[in-house]
Design a protein that fits this description.
The strands form two sheets. Strands 3-2-5-6 form a four-stranded mixed β-sheet, covered by helices on one side. It has a two-stranded antiparallel ribbon with strand order 1-4. The longest helix is centred in the middle third of the chain and has 38 residues. By secondary structure, it is mainly alpha-helical. About 4% of the residues have low confidence. α11 packs across α12. It folds into three domains: 184 residues, no CATH class; 139 residues, no CATH class; 71 residues, Arc Repressor Mutant, subunit A, CATH 1.10.10.60. The chain has 21 helices and six strands.
Length: 445
């Protein structure tokens, strides 16, 4: 066979048309994203116009009448965000203090420069200081500048690491803080885990002294510069649907008032019928086809989302009606099989969306917990976590339940899991061990 011989292969290749890609894209959009997308499309396509017959305020009032736990404000009245209370930055705050110290000009200039190098947490990183030395700043002058910075407010500012930050703050607290300094210097990891007995043994210090020092350390600020950090913009989650438990039973309500309603423009449809200009006719026909397909995709998205959510509501009915504290195990493939839809279609329809019920606003993934264990009754991690929280809330603060005791009590309720799994879920919930719960309970007495 020569080098220039041609070989033919017969193969099938799936190609998605732009229209199909647009349909898939619309299906996976949440309500806010779809509303913005439709607005942009209407700006580019004159055949689309907003439907003036839809009364958003009336629709919201009708929903609130059946679900009094909803927010009392109308959707368009929600605040856009919260602006920071102050406008001063941390460097300006530090420079104001530096200028009052009467420092020599070289040292003052260096401190002004260091104030700009402090990060949002309030730390002066070692790598940045080494870069200053490489530029020719004398080491004695740099050490003096760092010392000046660390003497400023807020306490702990310009520290190189967490341990130094906490130590600088301890230095300003009157009284004997030697135990707290020793714990910060060599036992931060044990302190974070509540291993007070190990710390007391290592330092040859009474347990009471360790607990008192731990209380002092917990009152310190590990991020002294955070008060000046620029706050993240507040993003309000708008539900894509609601589940309402009314006298008629569970009802699903899709979010319609965050979604502008569009229709075909009567004026342009009439122009299409009457125009004799071929270019105008061709332009309007093209825009009409795009508009019709867009509205079809929106309608199909609403239908698919409604079918998926109604079945989800039925499967999690005991949770929505308050009979159980958490959703039962459920897989998206189960919905796809029952609805006779492709699993990818269900995943797109339910992805990146939120649902609100009387328990709160949750991403739809919250209602698809995985099954845990092999028990005859399906168990989910959410059900086990809810049971752990309930048992800990009911425990005697002077005699808190150990993980072993929690395991036995859960087994009595039909939740058979190992002690290690109990500990994993307890830690995931941010709940301390029984020893730490007892210690905090004793300190509250």
């Amino acid at each position: 066979m020569g080098a220039m011989d041609q070989i033919l292969h017969l193969a099938q290749q799936l190609q998605l048309s732009p229209s199909l890609l647009q349909s898939m894209k619309i299906l996976q959009m949440n309500t806010q994203e779809l509303g913005e997308y439709l607005t942009r499309q209407a700006e580019e396509n004159p055949v689309l116009e907003e439907d003036p017959d839809f009364d958003r305020v009336l629709a919201w009032a009708n929903l609130r009448a059946s679900a009094p736990w909803l927010d009392t404000s109308a959707p368009e009245d929600l605040p856009e965000g919260i602006s920071p209370e102050g406008t001063d930055t941390l460097p300006l705050f530090l420079r104001d203090q530096i200028s009052r110290l009467g420092l020599a000009k070289p040292l003052e200039a260096l401190c002004f420069y260091l104030s700009e190098m402090i990060d949002d947490k309030g730390y002066l990183l070692e790598a940045d200081l080494e870069d200053l030395l490489d530029t020719g700043v004398p080491e004695p002058l740099l050490l003096e500048g760092v010392s000046v910075m660390q003497s400023l407010d807020p306490p702990g500012i310009a520290a190189k690491n967490l341990a130094q930050c906490l130590t600088l703050q301890l230095d300003r607290i009157p009284g004997d803080q030697s135990v707290a300094r020793a714990m910060v210097a060599g036992h931060l990891e044990d302190l974070s885990k509540g291993h007070y007995a190990a710390i007391a043994k290592s330092l040859s210090t009474p347990m009471s002294s360790v607990q008192a020092a731990a209380a002092v350390i917990q009152g310190l600020n590990p991020r002294p510069g955070s008060a000046w950090a620029t706050p993240e913009p507040i993003v309000y989650i708008r539900p894509d649907a609601w589940v309402v438990d009314s006298e008629e039973g569970l009802q699903l309500v899709l979010n319609q008032w965050d979604l502008p309603r569009y229709r075909l423009s009567d004026a342009y449809l009439k122009m299409l019928e009457t125009t004799e200009d071929p270019e105008v006719r061709r332009y309007l026909q093209e825009r009409l086809q795009k508009s019709q397909w867009l509205l079809h995709c929106v309608t199909r998205r609403e239908s698919t989302l409604t079918r998926c959510l109604e079945l989800l509501m039925h499967r999690q009915a005991d949770y929505f009606t308050g009979k159980i504290p958490a959703p039962v195990p459920l897989g998206r493939y189960e919905l796809a099989e029952e609805l006779e839809l492709h699993p990818s279609t269900v995943s797109r329809a339910l992805g990146h969306k939120h649902l609100q019920c009387k328990e709160g606003i949750f991403p739809l993934s919250h209602f698809f917990p995985r099954r845990v264990g092999e028990a005859a009754t399906p168990l989910s991690s959410l059900m086990i976590k809810a049971a752990i929280v309930r048992l800990i809330r009911q425990e005697n603060p002077r005699h808190p339940l150990s993980d072993q005791a929690l395991m036995l009590l859960l087994a009595q309720d039909g939740l058979s899991i190992s002690r290690r799994t109990v500990a994993k879920y307890r830690e995931a919930l941010g709940l301390p061990s029984s020893f730490r719960r007892q210690s905090s309970g004793d300190s509250d007495q």
